[in-house]
Design brief:
Elements (H helix, E strand, L loop, with lengths): L20 H9 L1 H9 L4 H4 L9 H10 L1 H12 L13 H6 L6 H20 L3 H4 L2 E3 L6 E3 H24 L5 H4 L4 H9 L13 E2 L10 H14 L8 H18 L6 E4 L2 H11 L7 E5 L8 H10 L2 E5 L8 H7 L4 E7 L11 H10 L3 E5 L11 H4 L3 E4 L12 E5 L1 H6 L41 H17 L1 H21 L2 E3 L10 E5 L7 H7 L2 E2 L1 E3 L2 E4 L7 H14 L1
Parallel strand pairs: 3-13, 5-6, 5-7, 7-8, 8-9
Antiparallel strand pairs: 1-2, 4-10, 9-10, 11-12, 12-15, 14-15
This protein binds pyridoxal-5'-phosphate (PLP).
The site of pyridoxal-5'-phosphate (PLP) has 11 residues, from helix 14.
Length: 567
């Protein structure tokens, strides 16, 4: 591998004729286009990845932006006849604190375009006398003409573009991350753009997001980068422990219409429900309202709490048609202390209007807990209007993130007084100052951070979850719900002829649909589906089908074909 001379070791001859200035200008003009070409089709996560030593690609681009203010100042100094040019900061403090890795590449490129245009405008107006003006370079200690300085800036551009290219092709970058999307892949992407974002082999019909979301390529890449990063713990800065988790909180907050302060990072739904159960008030003989056939992680903790407090669990019976809303609202009464419900039933997608349920609970002073695992990410969720006490969700289903990292929203009153399950050093005020951890703090970090799980700065998982949530937000939850509605209604229409009854659209969410074969669930149905490489779940007497934006009508038709062949 070629090596690149450190910038400060460059030697200069400064011997261009003044008449070469238009050619130097041409080179300076080319920076934005060259930078754009360098990063084209390279995933954001890779552009933000720091090599073992030095800057990420984004930081190199950001640094070139950072210097434009100094460049313009130096042009003025030449024209004003200054003896010495203003010195650059040798520590590059501005670039260090700018946090360029959190800025979208598109934005970095736009800034580069604008700032470079300003510099070019200033230089284009120069006459030969200006171009030959001389000032001393403060670090080199030698006089340079304005044309020499312009060449110096152009070589500095080259240096950082070369360094950025080096990061992309470095052997510490995993080989599969160095590949860009080929033209051919791009064309395929235009046909089924969303599927190409995942690694789902041809022939696989994956309709099982309710079990586990498939992994986005960007998430795989973030994971690989995280694992590679873990090989160099000495390169980790104290900010690396906290900044990515803050970004993750902010992204999740956007999905549920909360503020980042209200989000804690948890490993599972059972953990989040345990936090809620440890905090909500309940007296003997009061009741906890749950759905019939609820997912176990939203049942056991409440049974345990009821046992300890002499309270009762009131299970709302399933009805064969209609939504859950009416029966749940009817079950809420003066003795209700807690209502812990999802937005739809996890087995068949039958819906629950949380706004109405939460309002009924509030009227009797009951706490509202939501398990959003089967909806958040694919179905709109607005905690600002529903106002639950707590909402918890896994991150690995509709949020397409890694297993083992979920989210807990806590209402403002619990952020001030809630009791966490654990007492990690990482949840206390001052945790950022690693030198003073034994100055024990009785204060928590602000907001819902007191509920964070121990070791919440999951270095590998956090990057993966960020990549996943960025993609979910880029699609938009409303759009996801709209697009999959076409698929589930196609299945609902086709199911009847294939010998099955489907939950009607009016009674369910659009991304998850349960169908019940009229002749019962044959034991070998799953095997027949697996043989056809059609992946769905069987939950009790229900075949649960859960498509996402990477699915097409052809996927639904393949499932229907298997059902038809057996009806
Ligand atoms: C409704 C619901 N809640 C929770 C979970 C997962 O719970 P936990 O994170 O406790 O494993 C699932 C998984 O299938 C689920 O469907």
């Amino acid at each position: 591998m070629m090596s690149l001379v450190p910038w400060i070791e460059r030697r200069w001859s400064f011997d261009l004729p003044v008449s070469a200035f238009p050619a130097v200008l041409e080179r300076l003009r080319g920076l934005p286009a060259r930078a754009a070409a360098l990063v084209e089709r390279v995933p954001e996560v890779l552009l933000a990845a720091r090599p073992t030593r030095g800057w990420s690609v984004k930081e190199h681009l950001g640094h070139l932006n950072d210097l434009h203010a100094l460049d313009l100042q130096r042009v003025d100094e030449f024209l004003a006849g200054a003896a010495v040019l203003t010195a650059a900061d040798p520590a590059n403090h501005r670039t260090t604190v700018a946090n360029h890795n959190t800025v979208a590449t598109r934005q970095l490129l736009e800034r580069l375009e604008q700032d470079r245009r300003r510099l070019i405008l200033a230089l284009e107006s120069m006459g030969d006398a200006d171009i030959a003006r001389t000032a001393r370079h403060p670090r080199l200690g030698i006089p340079m003409r304005l044309i020499d300085w312009a060449e110096f800036v152009a070589v500095h551009d080259d240096h950082h573009l070369a360094a950025a290219r080096y990061v992309l092709s470095s052997p510490t970058t995993p080989p599969q991350m160095r590949t860009r999307t080929t033209e051919r892949q791009q064309q395929t992407a235009a046909v089924n753009a969303q599927r190409d974002l995942f690694e789902i082999p041809e022939g696989v019909t994956y309709l099982n997001c309710a079990n586990m979301g498939p992994q986005l390529r960007a998430v795989t890449q973030a994971g690989v980068l995280g694992v590679h990063g873990a090989a160099s713990p000495w390169a980790r800065r104290s900010d690396d422990w906290f900044a990515p988790t803050e970004r993750l909180r902010a992204l999740f907050a956007r999905i549920v219409n909360a503020d980042a302060d209200g989000i804690a990072l948890v490993p599972s739904v059972s953990y989040g429900i345990a936090v809620a159960a440890a905090n909500v008030p309940i007296a003997s003989n009061q009741s906890i309202v749950l759905l019939d056939g609820e997912f176990p992680s939203n049942v056991y903790a409440w049974r345990e709490l009821a046992r300890r407090r002499g309270a009762v669990v009131r299970t709302v019976a399933r009805r064969s048609s209609g939504s859950w809303t009416e029966p749940v609202v009817e079950a809420i009464g003066p003795d209700t202390a807690v209502v812990s419900v999802p937005n739809c039933h996890w087995t068949d997608g039958r819906v629950l209007d949380l706004t109405r349920v939460a309002a009924a609970a509030r009227r009797v002073g009951a706490a509202v807990i939501i398990d959003g695992s089967q909806t958040v990410g694919a179905y709109p969720m607005d905690v600002a209007s529903i106002q639950p006490d707590f909402l918890v969700t896994v991150g690995y289903k509709w949020l397409l993130g890694p297993y083992g990292l979920g989210y807990l929203y806590a209402a403002p009153r619990w952020r001030a007084q809630g009791v966490p399950l654990e007492h990690s050093w990482l949840t206390r005020a001052g945790a950022e100052d690693f030198a003073r951890l034994t100055d024990y703090s009785e204060t928590f970090r602000p907001g819902a951070r007191r509920f964070d799980m121990g070791e919440y700065p999951q270095f590998v998982l956090t990057g993966m979850a960020i990549a996943a949530l960025e993609q979910v937000l880029a699609w938009g939850v409303d759009r996801i719900q709209r697009e999959v509605a076409v698929l589930t209604s196609r299945l609902e229409r086709g199911a009847f002829d294939a010998g099955a009854d489907a939950v009607a659209a009016a009674d369910r969410v659009d991304h998850l649909i349960g169908i019940r074969p009229r002749s019962g669930m044959a034991a070998d149905l799953i095997a027949a589906l697996a043989e056809a490489k059609v992946y769905v779940s069987i939950r009790g007497d229900v075949l649960r089908v859960a498509p996402h934006v990477f699915n097409t009508a052809a996927d639904i038709d393949r499932l229907l074909k298997v059902l038809q062949s057996r009806s």
